[in-house]
From TrEMBL:
<keyword id="KW-0032">Aminotransferase</keyword>
<dbReference type="InterPro" id="IPR004839">
    <property type="entry name" value="Aminotransferase_I/II_large"/>
</dbReference>
<feature type="domain" description="Aminotransferase class I/classII large">
    <location>
        <begin position="31"/>
        <end position="346"/>
    </location>
</feature>
<dbReference type="Pfam" id="PF00155">
    <property type="entry name" value="Aminotran_1_2"/>
</dbReference>
<keyword id="KW-0808">Transferase</keyword>
<keyword id="KW-0028">Amino-acid biosynthesis</keyword>
<dbReference type="InterPro" id="IPR015421">
    <property type="entry name" value="PyrdxlP-dep_Trfase_major"/>
</dbReference>
<dbReference type="GO" id="GO:0004400">
    <property type="term" value="F:histidinol-phosphate transaminase activity"/>
</dbReference>
<comment type="subunit">
    <text>Homodimer.</text>
</comment>
<dbReference type="GO" id="GO:0000105">
    <property type="term" value="P:L-histidine biosynthetic process"/>
</dbReference>
<feature type="modified residue" description="N6-(pyridoxal phosphate)lysine">
    <location>
        <position position="219"/>
    </location>
</feature>
<dbReference type="InterPro" id="IPR050106">
    <property type="entry name" value="HistidinolP_aminotransfase"/>
</dbReference>
<dbReference type="GO" id="GO:0030170">
    <property type="term" value="F:pyridoxal phosphate binding"/>
</dbReference>
<dbReference type="InterPro" id="IPR005861">
    <property type="entry name" value="HisP_aminotrans"/>
</dbReference>
<keyword id="KW-0368">Histidine biosynthesis</keyword>
<comment type="pathway">
    <text>Amino-acid biosynthesis; L-histidine biosynthesis; L-histidine from 5-phospho-alpha-D-ribose 1-diphosphate: step 7/9.</text>
</comment>
<dbReference type="InterPro" id="IPR015422">
    <property type="entry name" value="PyrdxlP-dep_Trfase_small"/>
</dbReference>
Length: 359
């Protein structure tokens, strides 16, 4: 008798980040994964090196110091924080806790791919609500809720569209959801947003028992390689997360470097200024070339080419000239190419290459 995996798991698409190898280019500009091109701050790098002495020890399972550092920076109770191996692991844990076969997991049309992938892994059905103008549509999400819905995932800001849900709209979403549906506010890019009508959702976690907010060290903190993320949740959900996570799910280097990174406000400020400047430069230059760029509040943009064939050719043109961007077919946005804001020289290179693109 052959082994039989649990139903649904074979339907989960593979998450394929794309190769960093370009034939004939020694050091391509990697603008495909929304990392911080400045890397981590010096304090985090020093702390990481310091972790070498402790490599033979198991990590502190509860990530106590790291949670304290996160709590201090954001004014949150560390007892309501759980850390994970990237916010990907947090998304996985939440899905395992709240959804299973026969349940529905709801997300916005162009939402982060790991939401449907995780739903399928637990045998649940991913359900997409339509967007308007590449922006999460609260009414469409609420209309898609059924008595099978267990989780609603929203990324705020959203990857890959770069749009955000204003605070009042997010509140309307929470208030419109039944109490037995978990709302996950994925705020992976929140540090980059400077809009008065945006907040990361902490207030909603404090007010409602069915809301959590996830964050990551992979973006502005520049520590994607360490795999570190966290979630702020009501005590009951935190308790369930602690039952679900592996006993040592966050390694020593990640805990030590993460605590140093989160205390380093100047690196965040520097990264925000860099992003503001070069996101706006890249947007304007692309628009001058007739490329459509929906407004983005993240550290990336999507460049619209009107049809899939042109977008594919633009992607290949960038790639063959040493710039690795990201194709968006998996997100239902095959007419677009996503590009991360890189270093100044990478952004300039990308723009110069696009000037040579014959649409
Ligand atoms: N949420 C969103 C919206 C993302 O774009 C990403 C990374 N691309 C993640 C979560 C996962 O990030 P990580 O696992 O590195 O924390």
């Amino acid at each position: 008798m052959p082994l039989v995996p649990r139903p649904g798991i074979e339907k989960a698409p593979l998450y394929i980040p794309g190769s960093h190898h370009v034939e004939g280019v020694a050091e391509p500009a990697i603008l495909s994964a929304n990392e911080n091109p400045l890397g981590p701050g010096q304090a985090a790098i020093d702390a990481y090196h310091g972790a070498a002495d402790a490599l033979f020890r198991y990590p502190e399972g509860g990530a106590v110091d790291l949670r304290a550092a996160i709590g201090k920076r954001f004014g949150l109770n560390p007892d309501q924080i759980t850390c994970g191996a990237g916010s990907d692991e947090i998304i996985t844990m939440l899905t395992r806790i709240f959804a299973g076969p026969g349940d529905e997991v709801l997300y916005s049309e162009h939402g982060f791919l790991m939401y449907p992938i995780n739903a399928l892994q637990v045998g649940a059905t991913p359900v997409k609500a339509p967007e308007s103008n590449l922006t999460t549509d609260v009414d469409a999400l609420l209309a898609a809720v059924t008595d099978k819905t267990k989780i609603v995932f929203v990324a705020n800001p959203n990857n890959p569209t770069g749009s955000y849900i204003p605070s009042a709209e997010l509140k309307r979403l929470v208030e419109g959801l039944p109490d037995n549906v978990l709302l996950v506010i994925d705020a992976a890019y929140s540090e980059y947003v400077c809009k008065n009508d945006y907040n990361d959702g902490v207030e909603l976690v404090d007010k409602y028992q069915n809301v959590v907010m996830t964050r990551t060290f992979s973006k502005i903190f520049g520590l994607a390689a360490l795999r570190l993320g966290w979630v702020y949740a009501p005590p009951k959900i935190t308790e369930l997360l602690n039952r679900t996570r592996g006993p040592f799910n966050v390694g020593v280097p990640a805990q030590i470097a993460g605590a140093a990174a989160i205390a380093d406000l100047s690196h965040t400020d520097k990264s925000i200024s860099h992003n503001d400047k070069w996101l706006s430069f890249m947007t304007t230059e692309f628009e001058n070339l007739g490329i459509q760029v929906p407004p983005s509040v993240g550290n990336f943009l999507i460049a619209g080419f009107g049809d899939k064939d042109t977008a594919d050719r633009a992607y290949n043109h960038l790639r063959s000239n040493g710039v690795i961007a990201r194709q968006m077919g998996g997100y239902g946005l095959a007419d677009y190419v996503r590009i991360t804001v890189g270093l100044e020289k990478e952004v300039r290179l990308c723009v110069d290459i696009m000037k040579e693109f014959k649409g």
